[in-house]
Amino acid sequence: MLKPPLQSIVDELCNHGCRQVNNSINQIEAGKLPPAMMKLSAKDQQAVLGELKSIMSVYDRCGN
After folding, report:
1. pLDDT in tens, 1-46
2. Is 40 exposed, middle or buried (0-12, 13-18, 19+ CB in 10 A)?
3. What DSSP string runs through 22-45?
4. What is the signed CA dihedral for 39, 42, 46, 48, rounded to 10 degrees?
5. What is the rounded distance in angstroms from the CA atom of residue 63 to the CA atom of residue 4?
6. Start-to-end CA span in the chain (Å)
7. 22-34 burial, b if ≥16 CB within 10 A, otherwise e?
8. Residues 12/19, Cβ–Cβ less than 8 Å
């Protein structure tokens, strides 16, 4: 379970729909952080990225 501030960031990113979450994952992996993640430590950035990937792994196909 993520710390509440990190969970809040995950929730914010997920509110934009699955396509945008996939785009965010790709951008984070490329080093282009969303504004909400800019001040996070590298460890916290990886925790958010891991949670986003975990959430998206349950979807076979994006319908948004």
Report:
1. 899 999 999 999 999 999 999 999 999 999 999 999 999 999 999 9
2. middle
3. HHHHHHHHTT---GGGTTS-HHHH
4. -20
5. 28
6. 26
7. bebbeebeeeebb
8. no
